[in-house]
Structures are given as C-alpha cells and as structure tokens.
Amino acid sequence: MAREAGVSKATASRALQRPDMVAEATRQRVQEAAERLGFQPNAAARALTTGRTGLMGLIVPTLSNPFFAPLVIGAQQAAEDTESHLLIAVSEYDAEREAALADRLSEQADGLIMVTPVGSDAALRERGRRRPLVLVDRQVGRLPAVVADTVAGLAELLDHLLALGHRDIAYVSGPAGSWADEQRRAMLTARASDAGARIHVLGPLPPTFDAGIEASAALPDAATAALAYNSYLALGLLHGLGVAGRRVPEDISLAAADDLSTLSATTPPVTALDVPLQAVGTLAVTRLHELITGHRRTVTSRLPAAPVLRASTAPPRSL
Amino acid sequence: MAREAGVSKATASRALQRPDMVAEATRQRVQEAAERLGFQPNAAARALTTGRTGLMGLIVPTLSNPFFAPLVIGAQQAAEDTESHLLIAVSEYDAEREAALADRLSEQADGLIMVTPVGSDAALRERGRRRPLVLVDRQVGRLPAVVADTVAGLAELLDHLLALGHRDIAYVSGPAGSWADEQRRAMLTARASDAGARIHVLGPLPPTFDAGIEASAALPDAATAALAYNSYLALGLLHGLGVAGRRVPEDISLAAADDLSTLSATTPPVTALDVPLQAVGTLAVTRLHELITGHRRTVTSRLPAAPVLRASTAPPRSL
DNA sequence: TTGTATGCGTTATCAC
DNA sequence: GTGATAACGCATACAA
Questions:
Q1: Is A66 in the same domain as A154?
Q2: Which of B69, B87, B265 is nearest residue A85 as measured by Cβ atoms?
Q3: Which stretches does the entry tag as region Disordered (chains A, B) (predicted)?
Q4: Which residue from B minimizes the CA distance to A261?
C-alpha cells in the first residue's frame, strides 16, 4: 500500500477519498506517492465495504436494431455524470435468458435498467422488490419507469392521417406479445373508431424488412394508408409497394412508429415518429441513480414522441 | 449467510462453487436453503479473494455509428461463453477521455479491449504492460490484437476496379489521424502505382454523409471510380452524385470500405467490403480471456475482409 | 489531523 | 467431507 508516503492506510484512504479531512501537506505527499507507485484502488474491496459497486446493469433486447443505440448512448452519458459504469447485456427477446442475465447482473451492479418488452409482470415486480430497478418503455404497477410516449405520438400521427382524409388505415403490427404493440393497437382502434375510421391490423409480425415486404402484399384493398410498427417494417413496405408498382404517397400513404435515420433518406422520405430514446436512456440512469442513493422515490416518467411529417403521407386518391 | 442449511460457510461456499467436493446430501440442503433465502452471492467479496471480477472492459470510439454494433454483439456472445460481463464505455474518439475511461475501467475489470483509432502507441504499450489488454483494428508492437484485414480486402477491391479498367481512382479518405486510414492510403497508392494507375486522395474528411456530399463535388474530373473510407461517405457520395446528375456506375463507379446494411438497399446497391466485425468482437473477448487466465500468449489475429461486388461498380465509360 | 482496529462476504488453507 | 480461521484491500468508528 501507499504508505510509501509514510502515513497509515487510513490516512491514505482519506487523502484520496475525502481530501478535505486531511492536512494539505499530507494530501500532497499521499497523492505523489500514489502517482509514483501507479496505485490503483481496488474496486472490489471498496465495493465490499461501501456496499456500492458503481455499476449499473442495462439489459436490452437486442443491439442489432440500431433503434437501441441512442438509448445506450444516452445511458452512457448519464452514467458518466453519476460516476458509474454500465454493464450491458442482451436478452435477445428471450424472457428466460433475460431473467438469468438479470440475476447475474444483480450480483455485480447496484441496480438494473431493463428494457423488456417480453418478460412477465410478476417477475419484474419481484425483481423490483429485491433491488433497485428501472423499467424502460414499459409500465408494471408502481415500478419506476421511463417511457417514450409513443402511444400519444402515434395518436398524433393517426390524427394527421385522419385529417388528410384517410378512413381505412392498415396497422402493420410488431412482434407477438409486445407490450408496446398492444398499447398501440388498442389506442389506434379506439381512436379511429371514434373518428369514424377503421384500423386494419396485420400481424403480429417480426419487425423486419422482409416481413414488411410480405405485409405489403397483404394490405387490404380498402386501406389508403399504412402505419408500421417500426422502421424496418416501413422500409419493407416501401420496397414491396415499389416493386408492386404502387406509388407512395399517391396510391397509399406510409408512416412508421419509430424513426431510424434511413427513413429520411428514402424516396420518398417516410413520415415517422421521433422517439426520444437518448433522453430516455439518460433519464433511466438518472432515476436509477436516485433510487440507489435513496434520494427520491420515483415513479413513471413519460417523454413525448413527436411525429415527423415527410413526403410519404398525403391525402388519399379518392379525394 | 446460508447456514440455514446447518453447515459452515465454508461448506456452503463449496456446495455452490465446487459441488463435487461435497456430499450430495449436503449439496442439496445448501441448494435449497439458498433458494429459500433468495441468497445472492456477493460479487465484490468474491472478486476480493479470487482477484477476478469476471468483468471485461470494452472501449469503443462511438456507438452512434452502427458499424460498431456487430463488434459489441460479437463481444457480448463470447463474454457469455466465458462467464463474464462487458463493461462498455465510449471514447468519442478523444484520446484523453479514452485514457481516463481506461483507467477507471481497469479498476473494475480483469482486462480491457480497446478499439482506439486515436491514442498514442506509447500510452497503449504502457497500459498493456500493467493489465491484460487486447487491441482491436490496430497494431502496436507485440500487443495482443485482433484486426479485420481491411487493407487486404481493400487491395482486392482495388484489383477489381483495376480489372474493370479504371486507371484514375479517387480515395475519399477518413478522419485525420486514423491509424486504419493511413494504412489504406499507403497500400492503395503503392498498389495502384504498380499497376500503372493513380489514386487521387480526397480528405482527410469526417466520416459522415454530409462530408460525402461535399466530396462528391470535389472528385477530380479524371476519376472514373471512387472508393470511400466508410459507408456514410459512400452514401453521401451516391446522393451528391445523383443530385449532380452523374450516374453510378455509368459515369462513375463507387465502392465503400465497410458495409452497413443500407448499402445493399440503395439504387444502385453499392459494392463494399464486408468487415467481419462480429467475429472480431468474439475473438477479442476470447483472446482477452486467454490473457486473463494465462492460458496462452497471444499475438495478432487477422480476420479477412472480403469485397461484396454489387451494381455500383462497372467498367469506366471510356471502354 | 492522524493512527488503530474492525468488518464487509467470500474463497483458500489447514486441520479434523 | 467438513469445519474453523485467515486472508483479500478498502472504509470507517473510535481513540489519541
């Protein structure tokens, strides 16, 4: 130990952790001794006494979908601000796998952030009881959560289509069992019906380009607009429609419920929902930090998602 | 502690860690007691005695560029196989920041994987001396490294262009100070010259879509083909050329030195280099694990990058 | 302001 | 096969 500085380890520890609890002169000596020896504090030992590892676990369903990159980036930034690091794991949309990962991460981290579209409410509740837990894009009871309000955003998007005159709108839905997808479906159906319009649900479908192509052939004839669960489905739809000779937006309008950057570079650019995922990531880490330090009881935060209107949506032909 | 099972903690520990060193009956009792109490081993305490945290640090320059996603995914998978977790941090291409992150991660992790296009050789050498370190896409002395052989792949790509008949080829280069970029430039210039052709270097440029657009206007008149440092530059070039009324590949051929998925969905699809980044990530973790467990002295592994020929490359007009 | 002593939860050593 | 017991390296309560 750095009693190269000629002090007790207690003083050394203080000099590095609580510089103000020690005489300036000794602080300097310790500092220098530490440098000279290339002293590296042992995180494990510190964690053992303090009960804090300074690590936060982050479980995402996948990293293949660039959709999640901003979330990780945002979380990363906030983690830095709280002097902690991120332990990232990937569940592959598998509830069992996710549970195993969460268990293992719990041993190492001070708390967990989970974006878990699958996975049972009960399991999450139980997990939240044991250790600090923040959910992302999902609400379970009174568990702390940060959600991007895609439902409200989607409502705006729907309103936009309705205002354009669309009355038969296809919703190309996402993976089976997705919590978010169910919320959206319910909202769309109800809201459309209130406005005297109809939602034609296709799916559930895997949220992929190929599934979008297939869906493009299955769109009901009546539909003058299609709303896709995500960008990949939208890109597939665009491609499929193009191949089939149906023009967007002349023959059919198209919009997506999330907004990967490619959507703005297609022909035509696709109307989409800007989901503030980076902010979600940042906020989730902040919340978890509050939870860990016990600074505050936190509940659900809701970040608005806003439609980005592009050239792929226009009034239906019949008008 | 789980002496709910009526055994000493020593036995309890053994029952859970070395099941074969304990009588089957007691193993069961301990097991059950652990379940009942929801016992969670404390990773910090274990790390303190064993000297292993089971964590690996991974520092990437950015996560905004989907280029790195496969790397993380590959690393993730391999980490799972070695029973370890990944601590991921982002350097933002900032050497100073990177150094700070590396220092902090070193305290927590058993070793580090760094993909560091910037950052000085000397600093990396020193770091490699202190703790297990694996470099990605970079070689520094005899430090263990895993590199995707984009230089060799690019040579193939160049050969392809030469075989098509191109003699004046623009290389739209990447960020200033990039290790990989320099390697490429040198190879291209030398190899082209050997074949009686010329490389026109544009840049250094930020590896972005917008920079690609600008570069498209700056291409030398003589150039019948352009090779871009990465997909974003290639997409920008494609866009810029399209706007300017120059057709790809009729007027000019285009290729990229990496291969984001969008390149295959453009019009025309863009010839590119398939960089096996996922395999790189996997191998890097495997190497680091070997290093940590001392199973093997490892040096540089080189994974081949192969050209994917698409419609954006064709013989030059003049032929 | 500084030093001494204790404990964090686990594994390793050495008896039994 | 099992049980005491001593580390591991740090932070703190308490004493000086």
A1: no
A2: B87
A3: 1-22
A4: B262
The domain tally of chain B equals 3
Of B38, B54, B107, nearest to A43 by CB-CB distance is B107
Has this prediction a pTM greater than 0.85? yes
Count of CB atoms situated within 10 Å of the CB of B302:
13
CATH classification of the domain holding B291: 3.40.50.2300
Domain CATH for B35: 1.10.260.40
A1 touches strand D (CB under 7 A): yes
Residue B264 resides in a domain: yes
The DSSP symbol for B251 reads T
Domain coverage including residue B42: 2-50
A141/A286 same-domain check: yes
Which pLDDT value is given to residue B295?
Answer: 77
Q: Taking the CB of residue A75, how many other CB atoms lie within 10 A of it?
A: 28
- B50 in contact with chain A, both atoms CB, cutoff 8 A: no
* 3-state helix/strand/coil string of B117-162: CCCCHHHHHHHHHHCCEEEECCCCCCCCEEEEEHHHHHHHHHHHHH
Q: How confident is the model at residue A65 (pLDDT cuts 50, 70, 90)?
A: confident
The verdict on B187 and B270 lying in the same domain is yes
On the question of a cis peptide bond just before residue A204, with omega within 30 degrees of 0, the verdict is yes
Of the candidates A30, A50, A70, which is a domain's last residue? A50
Both A143 and A288 in one domain: the answer is: yes
Is strand C less than 7 A from the beta carbon of A42?
A: no
- The pLDDT assigned to A143 comes to 94
- State the nearest residue by CA to the C1' of C11: B49
Give nucleotides in strand D with any atom < 7 A to a protein C-beta.
1-5, 7-13
- Say if A85 falls within a structural domain: yes
Binary contact (A69, B66; C-beta < 8 A): yes
Q: Which residues pair with B226 in a beta bridge?
A: B170, B254
Q: What are the pLDDT digits (tens) for B90-126?
A: 998 899 999 999 999 999 999 999 999 888 999 999 9
